[in-house]
Amino acid sequence: MNSTIDTAPKATFDSRAFRDALGTFTTGVTVITTVTPEGEKLGTTASSFNSVSLDPPLVLFSMARNAKAFPAWQQARSFAVNILAEDQDELSTRFARPLTDKWSDVIPEHGPVEGLPLLPGALVSMECTSYANYDGGDHIIMVGRVVSFMRRRPHARPLVFFGSRYRALDKRDDPEAMLGYNAPRETARSQ
User: Fold this and answer.
1) Topology adopted by domain 27-163
2) Cα(86)–Cα(158) distance, rounded to whole angstroms?
3) What is the pTM of this model?
4) Which of 95, 91, 127 is nearest to 109 (CA)?
5) Average confidence (pLDDT) per 10 residues, the chain, 191 residues
6) How many CB atoms lie within 10 A of CB 84?
7) What is the pLDDT of residue 12?
8) Per-domain boundaries in the chain
9) Cα dihedral sign, 138-117-55-72
10) Distance between CA atoms of 98 and 88, rounded to whole angstroms?
11) Measuring CA to CA, which residue among 145, 78, 60, 155 is closest to residue 118?
């Protein structure tokens, strides 16, 4: 249930300046994928991804209402989250561009539960079923229940976005040390 009450005064700042301010928050990069009932594969780059809950396992991302495929995304019953590795900036850029054949030369793998298209080489891929959608102004906030995930490249570094550019973690940072353990490739399904 969405119980938002907006009593704040109207913004007096420039929307571009606000966007630039938000760009100072470093994020990882994901590509969200799904399949329409007609069988068309959809994909979009999203840095507006985060965890919501461990029990039940929930994640969210935000979809712009002005996106060409917005009506299809709004009707999605399931979606996959592909967390990109630092060597996948070209893939991120491809899925961020509107009106292009995003899937050209991309041979997806398929998720074990929902059969959703997963991007090869992603750090982690999660299959999610739609849990809730919320109004988010010029975006819709899409919450999904994770039904499976695969850690596919535990030793790779994440693709990072800051200040409107892709960035890299310091090469001295060891991904295994950051995780606190030597993580084998995992596949997990929600019970």
Assistant:
1) Pnp Oxidase; Chain A (2.30.110)
2) 5
3) 0.81
4) 127
5) 62 74 74 94 93 96 92 93 95 89 93 96 96 93 96 89 80 57 49 48
6) 27
7) 74
8) 27-163
9) positive
10) 18
11) 78
